[in-house]
Every structure is written in C-alpha cells, then in structure tokens.
Design brief:
With 436 residues, this protein is α/β, with parallel strands linked by helices. The chain has 2 domains: 223 residues, 3-Layer(aba) Sandwich (D-Maltodextrin-Binding Protein, domain 2); 198 residues, D-Maltodextrin-Binding Protein, domain 2 (3-Layer(aba) Sandwich).
Length: 436
C-alpha cells in the first residue's frame, strides 16, 4: 500500500510544488507568481489550473478509503476535529477514516521513537524534537506542497525550527512559545522598557521590583544576548558546547548580581508575580503567553507587554534575547497514504487554519499573514512574542545544559549571597553544561 501511495505521489506532483491557496481544489487559469524550487535550484511557475490538477489527479486515483491517524494534544481535540471535518468536506468523493488520538506535543517524540511504524500518520510536536524524530525516520521531508508554499508563508524563525541540514521536515503550526516582558504601564513607559538600566532606575524610584524566572531557559536571555559572542549549542554526540566563562561572561554575571543586590531583580514565578502585580510591589516580569490571562487579570487597564530589554555589562550594552519555540506538524514516512497525509498537514497549518486556531485557542500563528492580522496584533501577549521573534534563538541544547544552568541562575539572580568567585562559578557551570 505504501509503495502504491508513493508511486501516486510521484505521478501527481513530479517533485514540484503546487500552490493554489489554502482552499486546495481551486479552479481558474490565472497564473500565480509563487516561486518554487524543483530541487535543482531552478525556479518554476505553475498556473492555478495545473496546480489544481495535481490534487484532482490525487482525488481521481484514490479508490480506497483513506485511513489516517492524527495525534493532537488533549486541549486541541475539539478544534482539530473541526478541521478534520472541514477537510473531509472539501473532497466529498473520497472516503476518509480519520482516527484522532490524544498525544501532547511534548510527548510526541517518545511516542514516535517507541515504534515509528506504529505512530500516527500526522502529529504535532515541539520543534526541539525535530532532529531526534528525523534520526528515527519519523518525519517526511516537505519536498512537495499542494496548496501553499510552506517556506515563504511562515516566519523565517519557524522555518528554521523545521529545517535540518537544509531540508524542511515539518509544517509550522504555531509561533508563540518563548518569553518577553510583561509590565505595569502606570509604572513604566514604553520608552523605559527599552533598557533594563532605565527600568532599574524607575523601579528604585517607585519602590517596585522586576521579576526574573529561574532556570537556564531564561538565563539564556542574558548570556547569549546579541553582541556577546556567546553560544550554547547542541553537538552531534548529544553534548552542548558553551563559552559563557570568558570575560564577557564574567561581566554579565556581575551585572546580574548587581541588579539583584540593588533589590531590583528578584526571582519570581508566574504565581508570585501575579500576586505582586496585584499588590503593586512588582512592575515587570519575564514570562510567556501561557501566563497572559493571569497577568491581564492582575494588571487590568495597566496590562502591557514588550520584547526583552537591553542591559549593560562591563560598560557595553547588549540586546537581550529569548529562546523561541514552535509547535510543528509532522508527517510519518511510514504512512500508507502519504500524499493525503501531506495534504492534510498543509490544511492543519495553512493561514486560515492558523487564524481559526488563534480565535479558538489563542495560540499565536507562525504564518506571516495570519500573525499580521488586526486580531492577532491587538492581543498584547501575542504581539509581544511576535516582536520578540526578531531577537530570539532556537533552543538546541543537550540534556546536561539544564541542571548546571539552573544552578547558575539561582546563584546569580539571588545576588550571589555566599560571595563565590564569579569566574569559578562560570567555569563550573560550563563544565557541567558541556559534559559528555
């Protein structure tokens, strides 16, 4: 069956990209200016009639019931079922048997790795699982697209998250995982939020604090800030290379310690920060979209958010960055109905579906047009994480990164209460992070 499906795929699309919009089976003969790669580096153009013909051929040559298993998170079951029903309605002459299962994006990798041949045909997963899923042959390369150009339709960072060794292996679905600053607009102005030094000055004057969450995920914002020359990168053997323990790193560590000693920068999680906002004792906090409602409730009309600020260390100013994360849709190469699985993956992630997902689930789009809609831009948190995308990094680190970076963050954001030698702190942290 799989060989038959693959042969059908080659017959229908000939390794080209058919671009006919999210509507799929569109007619008409007007030319489209969408450019596609044939794999040889040449750019080809397809008119809409030829593009629609690829799907028409797929429909005409599908005689059996198309059986596909789809995995989505527990919270996405209802919404995903709606999209599946809409997809079926688009191709009334085809019989579909869709089985929707519950599987979190975070747990998708382990479920697929257990047995790729028994895993879902189409599934959602977190982008940091990409390489391992490729290694176990759990992802199909996105070399063919029926309805829209995946690479140009989505943000560059989301495509980077779906790419390995120059090849795209998944379809970006959301673009709202990462962190930024929430703040009280009655305490800080938008201009204040550009600089952590200015924020610290205002915070002292008004007797409030700035919350920073613990752990290496957030500490990355300081140490891998733009212009530092720092990195924490996954290596082929699963270890992490890291160079935080240079003089720039010492300067950054000392800057964090000083912010903390000044009583401005304090450790805070979402629960304590929300309470502090209500009490008027905290003016800003680093967090993500998952906490938007609690902060909106706590701050009321003063609810605001923006990208991470710049900060000064060793007499130099650096732009803070953030780890960015994306939810992707993958297609299992073991699917017996590979062309239909790919077409379904496109439908689940196209512009219209991403807009609908935002409306139903308040999940930020990776699709460029969907992200620029007035509805999305009017959402304070989604607008902030979208802007943060210009100053973000993909999370690609090994397992030993987390414990050592968290220990370091605990000490620094607490103001180094035991007065430990900063260079030794960084040396020890890097030794732990880079351990094989």
């Amino acid at each position: 069956m799989r060989k038959k499906a693959l042969a059908l795929l080659m017959t229908c699309v000939l390794s080209m990209t058919a671009l006919v919009g999210c509507g799929g089976n569109a007619g008409g003969s007007n030319e489209t200016n969408a450019s596609v790669s044939s794999g040889s580096g040449e750019i080809q153009k397809l008119d809409e009639k030829a593009a629609a013909g690829a799907i028409d051929n797929l429909v005409a040559n599908t005689k059996d019931t198309v059986q596909l298993t789809i995995w989505a998170s527990e919270m996405d079951q209802e919404f995903t079922q709606t999209l599946l029903d809409q997809f079926k309605a688009k191709y009334p002459s085809v019989k579909f048997d869709f089985q929707l299962g519950i599987q979190s994006e975070a747990g998708a990798k382990d479920a697929v790795m257990a047995d790729p041949t028994a895993a879902a045909d189409v599934y959602a997963f977190a982008d940091d699982q990409l390489i391992e899923l490729i290694n176990v042959k759990g992802l199909t390369e996105v070399s063919t697209a029926y309805t829209y150009d995946v690479a140009s339709a989505n943000s560059a960072s989301s495509i980077a998250a779906a790419t390995y060794n120059g090849k795209v292996y998944a379809y970006p679905m959301t673009g709202d995982n990462g962190y930024f600053m929430y703040y009280n607009s009655s305490i800080f102005s938008a201009e204040d939020m550009v600089s952590l030094d200015k924020m610290a000055e205002v915070a002292k004057q008004k007797g409030v604090t700035i919350g920073y969450q613990k752990g290496g995920w957030y500490l990355h914002g300081f140490f891998d800030a733009e212009g530092t020359g720092h990195y924490a990168e996954l290596q082929s053997d699963g270890s992490t290379s890291c160079n935080w323990n240079d003089q720039v790193g010492v300067d950054i560590a000392n800057a964090i310690i000083q912010y903390a000693k000044d009583g401005v920068l304090v450790m805070a999680d979402d629960s304590t920060a929300a309470e502090a906002f209500k009490a008027g004792t905290m003016g800003a906090v680093v967090s993500g979209t998952w906490a938007a409602q609690s902060y909106a409730d706590a701050l009321g009309s003063n609810y605001a958010a923006c990208i991470m600020p710049k900060f000064t260390a060793g007499g130099k100013e650096y732009q803070m960055t953030a780890y960015l994360g994306f939810k992707l849709i993958g297609v299992n190469p073991n699917s017996a109905y590979l062309p239909w699985a790919m077409l379904l993956a496109e439908y689940l992630t196209c512009e219209e579906s991403q807009v609908a997902r935002f409306q139903a689930r308040q999940l930020g789009p990776s699709n460029v047009k969907a992200a620029s809609s007035s509805a999305v831009l009017s959402d304070v948190a989604i607008a902030a994480i979208s802007a943060q995308g210009a100053h973000g990094t993909l999370q690609r680190v090994g397992g030993n990164y987390w414990a050592s970076s968290e220990s370091l963050s605990d000490i620094l954001i607490s103001g180094n209460p035991d007065g430990q030698d900063v260079k030794k702190l960084l040396d020890d942290a890097v030794d732990g992070i880079t351990a094989k």
